[in-house]
């Protein structure tokens, strides 16, 4: 099974603490790196992943609040110092464009690579990027400013050909991909061997959903139905529900209710308020609704299966 890893680089909320950095994640999908949000400290946290700067091709920003974007200027500059020449593609709400233009005009004027910004309509659940191996969909969120999450889904692979069948029927290399694509094999004596006998099923399709700052969204459980892993902000405990509603956030219980309704495989909660010295209170409230919940933490790496 090919790589599909999630690296947590920051899982705190707006106020950095000695325990948590602001929001930032990196997804490694088949050795293609995607960053989701880029809060302060992203570069230092990146160092602990062991991943290559040069493989980072895409950055997806949920919204134009500082704790999700203040790491971008330094990151853009550092990649120039590292000798980057490949384009960097940034996706995010239209409100982010002036910020990026300011950074490029005042601090990163002599880049040896281009920064391509593509605005996302945060009100629509839509495909915003795809290539041969993945799709990225926007997830409209309900925050104080235009905001969206992201659903990353790998594309289905081909079935696996059985090694013993290659040897038994003396199948040449040129025929292997045809068989994987559904063609039967005809032997030298005219015997037709069904491709289903020669192959085993493809690996299951994996998916990851990122729900950044948001109050509950009615359609979310439909959009993220059955995903392998769901990250959902859980800034507050239920005792602080009034603060959650005032500032456009969710409680741990509300995050777990989304996971339960969507039938996801696993939930990871994050974006913790700095008021909590011990997030186990949030974990307990979430697990009471959805048992397979874990806490986000810097340097945590999850392997999607």
Plain-language structure description:
The protein is α/β, with parallel strands linked by helices and 305 residues long. The chain is built from 11 helices and 18 strands. It folds into 2 domains: 4-157 and 203-303, Ribonuclease Z/Hydroxyacylglutathione hydrolase-like (Metallo-beta-lactamase, Chain A, 4-Layer Sandwich), CATH 3.60.15.10; 160-200, no CATH class. 26% of the residues lie in helices and 28% in strands. The strands form 4 sheets. Strands 6-5-4-3-2-1-18 form a 7-stranded mixed sheet. α10 (252-262) packs parallel to α11. The longest helix is centred in the last third of the chain and has 11 residues, at 252-262. The N and C termini lie close together (8 Å).
